[in-house]
Design brief:
mainly alpha, 2 domains, globular, membrane, transmembrane, transmembrane helix
Length: 216
């Protein structure tokens, strides 16, 4: 099994294990910080007279971090650029765990309510994130299996970034378009690989009637 998987994408050899532990710790810190930042944005009352409030409003940061697309993009980048699928699984899990726990605790402490019902779907995503992270790691290769995985990722990103389905397509916002383009860039390996995956993923988003049920 290991040999077959290594033929899809060859893991990098880890010579400095303390460095990989440090990187995983930094991923956890990063996720924790983003969780706090996202909830802080939720609670922030925008005042257009304050210059940095205007920047937040202009960039739609409050909306950005309340949607799934940005979190999927970050997790995808973490997974794809990890040393191997095991590290991808660990790092993606740590990212989502840090984000969810810090968001949950910040809400309880500073917003005065417990969003347990809302957070359950995020905790469910966190629970399955190691498997998804490991699978995504194999997307960055030129093999057929990798292209299939890549196409499925593009399909999911298209569903979250655009209003798309049978016979219709609408841009939701320029930020979501940038997120989608960034996801494609992360997955890029060769022109042929990304072209096949892109066309397949977008086609699947158009024809699949279950697309709307992916949204959280």
């Amino acid at each position: 099994m290991t040999e077959a998987l290594n033929k899809i994408r060859q893991p990098l050899k880890i010579s400095n294990k303390p460095l990989t532990v440090l990187m995983s710790f930094l991923v956890l810190v990063f996720g924790t910080g983003l969780g706090i930042f996202a909830k802080w944005l939720d609670n922030l009352e925008i005042d257009s007279d304050i210059w940095w409030h205007r920047i937040i409003e202009k960039l739609d940061l409050g909306i950005l971090f309340s949607e799934m697309a940005i979190w999927l993009l970050i997790a995808l980048a973490i997974a794809v650029f990890s040393f191997n699928p095991i590290k991808a699984a660990i790092n993606v899990f740590l990212f989502f765990a840090g984000m969810c726990i810090s968001y949950h605790l910040y809400t309880i402490i500073f917003a005065g309510f417990d969003p347990s019902d809302y957070m359950m779907k995020w905790y469910l995503l966190t629970a399955v994130s190691p498997v998804l992270g490991a699978v995504c790691w194999y997307a960055k290769s030129g093999k057929v299996v990798s292209i299939v995985i890549c196409a499925l990722i593009i399909y999911v990103m298209a569903v979250y970034c655009f209003s798309i389905g049978r016979f219709y397509f609408t841009f939701r916002s320029w930020v979501n378009t940038v997120i989608f383009a960034a996801a494609v860039a992360v997955l890029y390996r060769t022109p042929k690989q990304i072209s096949i995956a892109f066309v397949s993923g977008i086609a699947l988003a158009f024809i699949n009637p279950l697309s709307r049920y992916l949204c959280i």
